Amino acid sequence: EAAEVGFWVHPDHRGRGVAHASLSLASTLIQRSGLTRLTARTVPENLGAQRVLERAGFTRGARARSMAPSGEEVLLLHYSREIRPSAPLP
């Protein structure tokens, strides 16, 4: 079982650990929910997101074309991170 996470940080707040903190919180919630994998996707041009994901323990997987909300077809990098389940949420 997996959940997908995504993030966007306003330019005024980039480089302050906001994305990393949000991934850490998401990992904790996923861990307590009983799911075992967290996934994410980003475009190849977004080097900042790739760095954040890799520092948070995500592994880059396949590249695949997908439809963006704008309707255009884009190339996406897929990432995943295995999560060990812990005590369930009440």
TrEMBL record:
MF (Gene Ontology): acyltransferase activity, transferring groups other than amino-acyl groups
Source organism superkingdom: Bacteria
SUPFAM superfamilies per UniProt: Acyl-CoA N-acyltransferases (Nat)
N-acetyltransferase domain ranges (all copies): 1-82
PROSITE patterns: GNAT
Record Pfam families: Acetyltransf_3
Name of the featured protein: GNAT family N-acetyltransferase
Organism of origin: Candidatus Agrococcus pullicola
